[in-house]
Amino acid sequence: MRKKSARKKGLNVRKIRELWSKTYNEQGRVDWSHIMPYYDEDIRFRDSIQEIHGIDEFRAMHERLSRRSNDLKMNIVNAIQQGNVIFIEWEMTIVFKGSPNSILYGSSRLSVNDEGKIASQRDYFDLWGDIFDNIPKFNKVYRRFMRKKFG
């Protein structure tokens, strides 16, 4: 019997936009539980901070982020699918406890397996630059340093 592709199983650009835009539960807390069923048990995740293997570690990462933030919104700016790979460009507005809003700009590459689940996710973003841009006075010092050293 032939396995269905990710598109036929329903995980596509439209579904990704729908899922990622709902980051809250009915109690007003950051919640990704509706997204977790779309991840493979053996998920491999990597971003500029960490590398994670397995759904338990992946859930724990999301729980840590939920505890640290008062508010979090995802805006999917652009999304394309090429076979079993979905690329999304996003803006994540996050309010860390005791801090002003920070917008992180990034993108993710999602690789979907034959069961229609995300087998790997690689996130790309400039964590410190996007956070430091929201700190008055320090933002200019940081950007001047980055231009001098790297560009």
From TrEMBL:
- In which domain of life is the source organism classified? Bacteria
Q: Where does this protein have coiled-coil stretches?
A: 55-82
Give start and end of each SnoaL-like domain: 28-120
Give yes or no: UniProt keyword Coiled coil.
Answer: yes
A single Pfam family it belongs to is SnoaL_2
Gene3D superfamilies reported for this sequence: 3.10.450.50
Report if keyword Coiled coil is assigned: yes
What are the UniProt keywords, alphabetically?
Coiled coil
Q: What is this protein called?
A: DUF2358 domain-containing protein
